[in-house]
Design goal:
By secondary structure, the protein is of the alpha/beta class. The strands form 6 sheets. It has a 9-stranded mixed sheet. A 4-stranded parallel sheet has the order 4-3-5-6, sandwiched between helices. Strands 16-17-18-19 form a 4-stranded antiparallel sheet. Among the domains are: 187 residues, ANL, N-terminal domain (Rossmann fold, 3-Layer(aba) Sandwich), CATH 3.40.50; 98 residues, ANL, C-terminal domain (GMP Synthetase, Chain A, domain 3, 2-Layer Sandwich). The radius of gyration is 23 Å and the shape is globular. Helix 9 crosses helix 10. The longest helix is centred in the N-terminal third of the chain and has 17 residues. It has 14 helices and 24 strands. It binds adenosine monophosphate. The site of adenosine monophosphate has 18 residues, from strand 13, strand 18 and strand 19.
């Protein structure tokens, strides 16, 4: 039976003895064994009453069984809904109540806590522990290793991923089989991923980056995945000589650079380093090249759209930019109020259209209508600027735009100036409420480990470069910027912390 995503990514690997998932301290899993595990899990899901279109919520530690559960859900015609392991009971209650899944899979330790939540929507609660044990997998050996794949077309849903929802309620992005399949095909071609590749996988798999970008591409290409439970510097350093590909968030690269074992020799066999999910400082890009000879390839995407732009494989990978639109993906920059395209070189709202763009927000027609235009363009909420030769730079989130005394100030412009100052590792600029100006600009600055920063000197350096209305009113020297698991700086937390004073 034809199942669009399963056929694109997985079906062709039946009978393949080559290793798909390789782990430190555990047996390798061949493609064939992975397909068998997925098929057994698909039987388990159907035995629990899963019917096509049903959601499967999973809040569990990263494991090969969880990867197979993703494949199983797709094969059985379900919709995979992974949740951040950091979510609290109340947050999970919201997601389960909103998505109304048939099945909830959670770590055994949360079983008692989640039983009522799952029961409340008539869902079955199954357990899956970090070591693969649990009620989900308990009777797998007795189940057949082949499963009659449930028919699903390109427009049917395969994934429901909730956005991080820094403002207001988190929204469920509905991703179709073709949204995911088209992006996987495009990225495999663009990044030239083949069955000869070995990807170091140290990202979480509840997020689009580790789940769809990393796993869908390697599955589609038949590549091997060195599967790690989490980011561990020693494990990655040990794995680099036997790998060809790394996908990471920018903090992976800053942490690697902080280790003297990262050298040209160590990375000689690597083909490609990819970064995304948060801005990679140009400085990190340049330092990484100086140390290893490799140019990190930065790309840009989001939960709702999969990947949108990428620096080129063969051409110039320009530091501080996210490259050009991927083949088949259209990007335009617009004015927020009118929706008209902005002039060349101007900053505008990034809008995107293509087969990668999601189907709308789950049970939120108003939010969908507000962000997805009738002509198919999705309003990303990110502000960008395109160079004369077509490289897109992300200027920041529209909601982080500071309006002070009636002037628009883009935090990134000030952050770029601060980051250039000797002794500065990184910075985050944000607005806090101000009685006269509406918002006042605050700069939080992280010094290099050995440096002592003087706010007065920072202020002077900024005054030399930027117009008066862009000068921060205060400089806060802090040890590190608050970040979430995907490496994104949490400006809301900074605003909260520094709003007084
Ligand atoms: P998420 O939906 O969690 O993947 O978050 C998507 C958001 O991450 C985007 O809307 C951007 O604001 C940000 N983002 C992703 N990749 C990049 C990048 N390469 N540079 C800057 N911001 C990025």
């Amino acid at each position: 039976m034809s199942n669009h995503l399963y056929d694109t990514l997985i079906a062709a690997h039946a009978g393949t003895a080559k290793t798909f998932l390789k782990r430190d301290g555990a047996a390798d899993l061949s493609f064939d064994a992975f397909l068998g595990l997925a098929a057994r899990l698909a039987h388990a899901l159907v035995a629990q009453g899963l019917t096509p279109g049903d959601r499967v919520v999973v809040q569990a530690a990263k494991s090969v069984e969880m990867v197979a559960l993703y494949a199983a859900t797709v094969q059985a015609g379900g919709v995979f809904l992974p949740l951040n392991t950091a979510y609290t009971r109340d947050e999970v209650a919201y997601f389960v109540g909103d998505a109304e899944p048939r099945i909830v899979v959670a770590d055994g330790a949360s079983e008692a806590e989640l039983a009522g939540i799952a029961g409340g929507v008539g869902a079955t609660l199954l357990t899956l522990n970090a070591d693969g044990s649990g009620s989900l997998t308990a009777d797998l050996a007795a189940r057949p290793a082949r499963f009659d794949t449930v028919a699903r077309g390109p427009g049917d849903l395969a994934g429901l991923l909730y956005t991080s929802g820094t403002t207001g309620r988190s929204k469920g992005a509905m991703l179709s089989h073709e949204n995911l399949a088209s992006n996987a095909r495009t990225l495999v071609q663009h990044w030239r991923i083949t069955e000869d590749d070995t990807l170091i996988h140290a990202l979480p798999i509840f997020h689009t980056h580790g789940l769809f970008v990393a796993l869908n591409t390697t599955l589609a290409a038949g590549a091997t995945v060195h599967f790690m439970p989490a980011f561990d510097l020693d494990a990655i350093i040990a794995a680099l000589p036997r790998a060809t590909l790394l996908m990471g968030v920018p903090t992976f690269y800053t942490r690697l650079l902080g280790d003297a074992r990262l050298t040209r020799e160590l990375t000689a066999g690597m083909r490609l380093f990819i970064s995304g999910s948060a801005p990679l400082l140009a400085e990190t890009h340049v330092a990484f090249t100086a140390r290893t000879g490799h140019h990190i390839l930065e790309r840009y995407g989001m939960t709702e759209t999969n990947m949108i732009t990428s620096n080129p494989y063969a051409g110039e990978r320009r530091p501080g930019t996210v490259g050009q639109p991927l083949p088949g993906v259209e990007v335009r920059l617009t004015e927020a109020e009118t929706g008209a395209e902005v002039a060349r070189d101007a900053v505008g709202m990034i809008e995107v259209r293509g087969p990668n763009v999601f189907q709308g927000y789950w049970q939120m027609p108003d939010k969908t209508a507000a962000e997805l235009r009738d002509n198919g363009f999705f309003i990303t909420g990110d502000l960008g600027q395109v160079s004369a030769d077509g490289y897109l730079s992300i200027v920041g989130r529209a909601k982080d735009l500071i309006i002070t005394g009636g002037f628009n100030v883009y935090p990134k412009e000030i952050e770029d100036v601060l980051n250039e100052i000797a002794g500065v590792t990184e910075s985050a600029v944000f607005g806090v409420p101000h009685a006269d100006f509406g918002e006042a600009i605050i700069a939080a600055v992280v010094p290099d480990p050995a440096a002592t920063l003087d706010p007065e000197a920072l202020s002077q350096a900024v005054e030399e470069k930027l117009a008066r209305f862009k000068h921060p009113r205060r400089y806060e020297i802090i040890e590190e910027l608050p970040r979430n698991t995907m490496g994104k700086v949490q400006k809301t937390a900074l605003r909260e912390r520094f709003k007084a004073g």
